[in-house]
Design a protein that fits this description.
The structure is a homodimer.
Chain A lengths: L2 E6 L2 E4 L3 H7 L5 E2 L5 E3 L1 H9 L3 E5 L5 E2 L1 H7 L5 H13 L4 E3 L15 E3 L13 E7 L4 E2 L6 E6 L5 E8 L18 E3 L4 E3 L4 H5 L5 E2 L10 E3 L1 H9 L7 H12 L2 H14 L3 E4 L7 E4 L13 E7 L3 E2 L1 H13 L3 E7 L5 E9 L2
Parallel strand pairs in A: 1-5, 9-11, 19-21
Antiparallel strand pairs in A: 1-2, 2-4, 3-4, 5-6, 7-8, 8-9, 10-20, 11-12, 12-22, 13-14, 14-16, 15-16, 17-18, 18-19, 21-22
Helix pairs in contact in A: 2-4, 6-7, 6-8
Chain lengths: ~350, ~350
């Protein structure tokens, strides 16, 4: 026989044998005195939805079925939280609000739910995912990114899950030990031509791109303003670094400085960054470049943002979807005012 | 023996047997009196590059080789235009500046070059592509979109070609003839629930998304605010249309009105628009929906912009690349102040 609950100060209290039926064996709510349990609105809605609760009585004594309860939207973001709660339940997970007294020692930050490993429940002390739930129109400031899972519910109630993690790009590429000295170069409107550099500059360290079909022994290399700024700073090409950086800022604005910071950081970590234009990113990166001949596929797509950037979920979906489609991982490099870089990866997750 | 040219009022003049060697048999430049021809700077650079011209003499009598000529950057966007010119030549195309006297009857608008079908040249009177060339940092106002090819040169001199065309989405889907009358529905914070609508609303006309696992005969449908506004305007759900539209504007801002205009236009054309969130677009569209059971893949991804939008080439690359990766065509719907819609498709092209 289905039970009834009653609204009381933000939770739904259910008595009778609710504790054993809903809490102990199925991971809903938290125990109160006697056999009563307290349910979060989303948990109560789910039990109504499944017919396990017949009704919830509100403060005026009105009996609410699933439909009336939903229409009340008890709590912020109730709709999207309910949809994700129901989806994860249907996938065989137990999950609880990420707060006491539902669980002890809840994950901090903006996590809405603690999702337990399949087969485990709230009492087992093990969390699989710290889950945050947003609608597709909710902006996410970069400083709110946290390790865990982000569930985005779109306007038609489809749910996309992202695994969010910090990332530490590193590699074994030879980025600096064999840089030449003062190669002749010309600064053009929006790129640089390096005349007759040693072959290794491209073929081992993967700077620039050869101009095809030249009649000389050594290739003519075309470099981006970014690559050229990096090389000029190290005396590898005979251009004034500040002149190149100025040109970069003319062409790209502030973005140039941030991209140069990230380019430099990646090179210092043994990673080769090349332009990510074709993928709509700032860089595609190669971690282990021995020679251009044996080049594998790039592993990461990197997008550079200021540390105070605000993400729109739709752009996250686009970036991550594209990266997934070309078998790369999407990484966001957040650059603050002092030039420090924080690296975050986002990948699609099927829970 | 390689010839020399001389700079004269924006073109490079070459005499001797240049006319027969470079113009008649290889499609460079246009004829002047006698055997002389005039070359655009890009054409002269290409002949220097290939060693066909030994030097170009400038107004001060200085002899410029390829390197010196390039460094002068004669003309706007010289670098990117040269790179594309060289790329298309290496692919076996003849191409000329899209202007008289290189060709008669040039394509209008922002076209830089007329590219001729393989095997044809400037004198054959047939153009394969009206080609515009930009660097990846050049903004493209929506009102500058024109049928033809857009070549974008990225910072490392890789070239991406886009075919740009007007588009007329149409389909055979049943969008309105069988709409129900006044179905009960609840307006939630950012979506609408329709209770017990007739099956055909989803199963044949593909409105909404069923909530899984309900115990009733008819499905509960969850609709986006956009779908609900459209249905409310037609009396299919018992919600006040303006209330729904207001909620849409609260959630999405002005974008809501534009998206509703495009949603309506697509439905009127027999096309079913569903949310494009997972692809970072506004809509994915289905042209021929008979029933949801036999649903094929969506054919188009549609992104909605105001008519005065300004495209960044990097976002174009991202959108088109993603669409290509999921085997759909990217369409931009430009909405002006009067609610008229212009449809443009962009697809990657390998010339």
């Amino acid at each position: 026989m289905a039970l009834e609950g009653r609204f009381d100060d933000g939770v739904v209290r259910v008595g009778s044998d609710a504790r054993q039926r809903y809490h102990d064996s199925r991971g809903y709510g938290y125990p109160l005195e006697g056999n009563e349990i307290a349910l979060a609105p989303v948990e109560a809605a789910h039990l109504l939805y499944r017919g396990d609760l017949e009704a919830v009585v509100d403060n005026d004594g009105e009996r609410l079925g699933f439909r009336e309860f939903i229409a009340r939207e008890p709590g912020d973001d109730f709709g999207v939280r309910f949809l994700v709660y129901a989806d994860l339940r249907s996938r065989g997970f137990y999950l609880s609000p990420a707060a006491e007294p539902w669980i002890s020692d809840p994950p901090g930050g903006a996590a809405d739910f603690a999702v337990f490993p399949r087969g485990k429940g709230p009492g087992d002390g093990e969390i699989a995912y710290a889950l945050r739930i947003i609608g597709e129109r909710t902006d996410v400031p970069a400083n709110e990114l946290a390790e865990g899972v982000l569930a985005v519910v779109d306007e038609e109630s489809e749910i996309t899950y992202f695994e969010v993690g910090t990332r530490d790009p590193s590699g074994t590429s030879n980025s600096g030990t064999a840089l030449p000295d003062g190669c002749e170069a010309d600064l053009l409107a929006d790129r640089v031509v390096v005349w007759e550099p040693p072959l290794e500059l491209y073929e081992e360290s993967f700077y620039g791109q050869p101009l095809e079909g030249r009649e000389y022994d050594e290739p003519t290399l075309q470099c981006s303003l970014l690559e050229a700024a990096y090389l000029a700073e190290r005396g590898a090409v005979d251009l004034d670094p500040e002149t190149v950086r100025e040109r970069g800022r003319e062409v790209e604005g502030e973005r140039f400085n941030r991209r140069l910071t990230v380019y430099t950081a990646l090179r210092e970590r043994g990673v080769v960054p090349k332009t990510g234009y074709k993928f709509g990113a700032d860089f595609r990166t190669y971690a282990d470049v021995d020679s251009v001949e044996d080049l594998g596929h790039s592993e990461l797509l990197v997008r550079v943002h200021p540390a105070d950037y605000v993400f729109e979920p739709r752009d996250l979906a686009l970036d991550v979807r594209l990266a997934h489609g070309v078998r790369k991982t999407m990484v966001f490099a957040l650059v603050d005012g002092t030039g420090d870089v924080e690296w975050w990866s986002l990948e699609r997750l099927t829970p």
